[in-house]
């Protein structure tokens, strides 16, 4: 049957056929995605067992424990989902259906994996994973689909919270616009401040959770506007109240309210994804991105001479050269840069003509000489584009550096403040003209920098900076005019100060942005995040550079497989123990989970899988594992101070054992090993000692859990002492506890019941 490959691919990825069948289940946030990762991975492992011919008792036990663990975790997960449904009636029906489906699928998986007690799991008298191979695939798909649906529905609640918070802010802003007395304004602004704080927290969490870096940058820009405009709104409104007949004060205030509304609207557009095409309008193609795409097409001719037409290539170059006109037409581009850009543009056209000529000939006749000529033409074209990219980068960044240096003294702003206080309208008018000129220079600088920013998030930051200068410039002018008309007004003076500070702050931000753009150009940006504690070459160990990375070969993997599987079974046991703890933030639990996660990575290494690619990766991970164990031992010592004398010796004895084992593991991991045989022996020793630590951890966690439960029950075995973490949390609650409990429902609470499902698997 062809079901096996299909089922494997369908369940292995949350975005492929297994989960992608429901068009409404697009995953846009990291929290939803990361919650699904362990479930997808372990369900795939479970399904892969159904076709394996060898089934030892250990394998059957492992399969059954997987099924039970899945069912148990799904049951808890569904309980939280149902609680969310009860609190959100508009989603109750959809959420309830998804929860029922998830519970049914979890129970089906548990039934199909109930094989450990059977003498003949293949017997037709009992339907199992081995006799009903398509049944487990269907159940797995239903489980993943329904769990995803619950998570996405919970995510919609988060979106609803942000929209509700935005609506509160807008409603209060409308009240602020209409107030006519200082007393009323102060009362409403106090409420407005609290609502803005709530909105900032919600949108900050959302920004960090977004998967799309472009949307994340847009969200950051909008939130920056709201943050700065809040203070502007305060002083502009106060100025307008003090001088109600002043037209410039009204213009100043209206500008702030308008900008805040636009920023609030953009946040909602990003959160709801209501304008997916708006991004294209906001960020037209830059020279950098155009050159990158053009070069990719040109270099693709090496592999395929027929995948695009010469007209397409010519059009792409025309678009790039049209954008270079932003530089050559700019009054702020130096004569030297302008000449070089024009020369390189002309050369690019010539190189493309030569490339097209050879390319057309090669399509008709693939001779060795023609293919060599094509390679030369490709190299020359790409080289020309690289030089063009370098030239526009130099033009933009040198202009930016000069302008930022020239304007660091803020002379125009200082002059506006002085002449405003003097009430010198003529001088204010003179300096507002100079500020307008400065604004045009800075706006042009932002436009040119966007072309060479190198990444989409930095492009968006350049657009945000351009918009800030465009808007803040006229607002400073209206604030200065207001002060000149009312030179003795302290509120008008304070208002001008606030807008000038926003301008200075944006200039400071531009210096940082310029540095980031140069870092991207010089290749100092864009490194991937390092998983857990994996070493970067040369960073963690002075000897690391001298060591050649080594991988285990197939024979070595086979030798160490049994030890690795034992380690994996222990990680499952540890995870089961930590799941029992109500307080998942407890230090003991967190250290245990961290050690289990690292041990699981080491197990995957024994199979040639996972993120530990070389033996050096493994040794470094073993060191960090041992360090985490030492930290756990320290927490155990602190916990022992709270227990009765009868229980203390046992706890301290186990803690000392842990310290000794971790020290031994660190010594082994740091020891030098030269040659293949010695390296494998060291790998074997590290895995063995890690297994021993995990075995001890499996004994320690139940002991601590038992003592902690005694503490909660008020048992006399615990002597009076400063309250343990769970007590601190409990005593910190108030009469508002039920509300706080409801607030915790959402992705985070659901996540806790899925991310800890590190299930058993067996070769």
UniProtKB/TrEMBL annotation:
Region of interest called Disordered, as start-end residue ranges on this chain: 1-20
User: Which controlled-vocabulary keywords does the entry list?
Assistant: Cytoplasm
GO cellular component term of the entry, any: cytoplasm
Q: Name one GO biological process term.
A: cell adhesion
Query: Where is there biased composition of kind Low complexity?
Result: 7-18
GO MF annotations, alphabetized: actin filament binding; cadherin binding
List locations, semicolon-separated: Cytoplasm
What InterPro entries would the database entry show?
Alpha-catenin/vinculin-like_sf, Alpha_catenin, CTNNAL1, Vinculin/catenin
Q: Which family, according to the similarity comment?
A: Belongs to the vinculin/alpha-catenin family.
Q: What is this protein called?
A: Alpha-catulin
Gene label? Ctnnal1
């Amino acid at each position: 049957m062809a079901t096996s490959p299909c089922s494997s691919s369908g369940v292995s990825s949350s975005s492929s056929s297994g989960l992608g069948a429901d068009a409404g289940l697009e995953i846009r946030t990291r929290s939803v995605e990361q919650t699904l990762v362990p479930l997808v991975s372990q369900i795939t492992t479970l399904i892969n067992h159904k076709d394996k011919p060898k089934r030892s008792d250990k394998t059957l036990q492992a399969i059954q424990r997987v099924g039970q663990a899945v069912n148990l975790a799904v049951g808890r997960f569904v309980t939280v989902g149902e609680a969310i449904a009860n609190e959100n009636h508009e989603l109750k029906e959809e959420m309830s259906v998804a929860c029922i489906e998830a519970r049914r699928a979890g129970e089906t998986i548990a039934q199909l994996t109930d094989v450990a007690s059977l003498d003949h799991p293949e017997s037709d008298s009992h339907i199992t994973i081995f006799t009903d191979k398509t049944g487990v695939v269907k159940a797995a798909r239903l489980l993943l689909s329904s769990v995803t649906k619950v998570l996405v529905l919970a995510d919609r609640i988060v979106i609803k919270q942000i929209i509700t918070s935005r609506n509160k802010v807008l409603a209060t802003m409308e009240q602020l616009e209409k107030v006519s007395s200082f007393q009323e304004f102060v009362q409403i602004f106090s409420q407005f401040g609290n609502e803005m704080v709530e909105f900032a927290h919600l949108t900050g969490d959302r920004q960090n959770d977004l998967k799309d870096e472009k949307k994340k940058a847009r969200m950051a820009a909008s939130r920056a506007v709201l943050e700065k405009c809040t203070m502007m709104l305060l002083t502009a409104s106060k100025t307008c109240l003090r001088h109600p007949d002043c037209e410039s004060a009204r213009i100043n205030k209206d500008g702030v309210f308008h900008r805040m509304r636009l920023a609030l609207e953009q946040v909602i557009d990003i959160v709801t994804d209501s304008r997916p095409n708006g991004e294209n309008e906001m960020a037209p193609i830059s020279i950098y991105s155009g050159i990158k795409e053009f070069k990719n097409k040109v270099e693709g001719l090496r592999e395929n001479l027929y995948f695009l037409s010469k007209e397409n290539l010519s059009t792409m170059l025309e678009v790039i050269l049209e954008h270079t006109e932003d530089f050559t037409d700019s009054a702020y581009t130096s004569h030297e840069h302008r000449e070089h850009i024009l020369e390189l543009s002309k050369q690019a056209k010539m190189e493309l003509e030569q490339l097209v000529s050879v390319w057309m000939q090669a399509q008709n006749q693939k001779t060795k000489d023609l293919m060599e000529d094509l390679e030369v033409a490709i190299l020359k074209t790409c080289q020309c584009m690289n030089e063009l990219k370098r030239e526009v980068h130099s033009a933009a960044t040198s202009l930016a550096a000069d302008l930022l240096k020239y304007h660091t003294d803020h002379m125009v702003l200082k002059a506006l403040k002085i002449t405003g206080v003097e009430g010198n309208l003529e001088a204010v008018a003179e300096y507002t003209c100079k500020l307008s000129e400065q604004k045009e220079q800075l706006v042009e600088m932002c436009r040119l920098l966007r072309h060479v920013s190198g990444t989409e998030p930095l492009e968006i930051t350049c657009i945000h900076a351009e918009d800030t200068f465009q808007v803040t410039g006229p607002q400073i002018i209206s604030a200065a005019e207001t002060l000149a008309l009312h030179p003795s007004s302290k509120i008008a003076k304070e208002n001008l100060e606030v807008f000038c500070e926003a301008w200075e702050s944006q200039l400071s931000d531009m210096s940082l942005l310029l540095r980031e753009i140069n870092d991207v150009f010089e290749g100092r940006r864009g490194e991937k995040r390092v998983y857990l504690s994996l070493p970067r070459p040369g960073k963690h160990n002075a000897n690391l550079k001298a060591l050649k990375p080594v991988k285990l070969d197939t024979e070595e993997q086979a030798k160490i497989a049994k030890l690795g599987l034992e380690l994996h079974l222990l990680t499952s046991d540890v995870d089961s123990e930590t799941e029992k703890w109500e307080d998942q933030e407890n230090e003991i639990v967190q250290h245990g989970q961290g050690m289990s996660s690292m041990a699981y990575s080491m197990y995957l290494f024994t199979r040639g899988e996972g993120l530990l690619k070389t033996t050096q990766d493994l040794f470094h991970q073993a060191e960090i594992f041992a360090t985490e164990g030492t930290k756990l031992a320290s927490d155990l010592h602190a916990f022992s101070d709270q227990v009765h004398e009868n229980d203390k010796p046992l706890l301290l004895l186990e803690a000392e054992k842990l310290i000794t084992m971790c020290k031994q593991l660190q010594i082994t991991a740091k020891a030098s090993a030269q040659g293949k045989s010695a390296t494998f022996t060291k790998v074997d020793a590290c895995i063995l000692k890690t297994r021993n630590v995990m075995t001890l951890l499996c004994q320690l966690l139940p002991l601590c859990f038992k003592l902690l439960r005694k503490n909660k029950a008020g048992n006399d075995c615990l002597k009076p002492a400063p309250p343990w973490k769970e007590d601190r949390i409990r005593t910190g609650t108030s009469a508002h506890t039920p509300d706080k409990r409801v607030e915790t429902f959402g992705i985070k609470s659901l996540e806790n019941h899925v991310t800890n499902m590190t299930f058993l698997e067996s070769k």
